[in-house]
Amino acid sequence: MVQELQQALEQQLANLTQLSALLDQELHLISSRNAEDLINLLKEKEHTLEQIQLTDNIVAQHYQPLSASQSVPDDINEMIEKSKQRVEECRYKTQVNEKAVEQGQLRLTHLRNLMLEVRAKESLTYDKSGKPKGSGRGRGISA
Question: Which regions of 23-129 does DSSP assign to beta strands (E)?
């Protein structure tokens, strides 16, 4: 029972390490605006998260009987603490990536607004008295 739990915890640490690396890659792809690679990475991240969930269920199955009998070895407790620390690291990286996406969205919105302002200025005309007047038509591409 202890051997299976230890193997499951080792697998979980490997899964969490993989997730941490994927989160680092995700931040790089967000900042470089590489949408195609980001979509591929998100699929890999989803698969890794599924593996973490499955392994977590296995760990719980083996850990509960041990903890009920109060005979959990110290090395098992240490591996559990390492896993918890790695989970917190991944949560932090996820928050950083979330902020990066939000900042990217704000930059895109700002750029869109600037482009709309330029377009509005380009379509500005003057009436007979010399006062500014919007033409109502943009200088867009017509088909």
Answer: 124-126
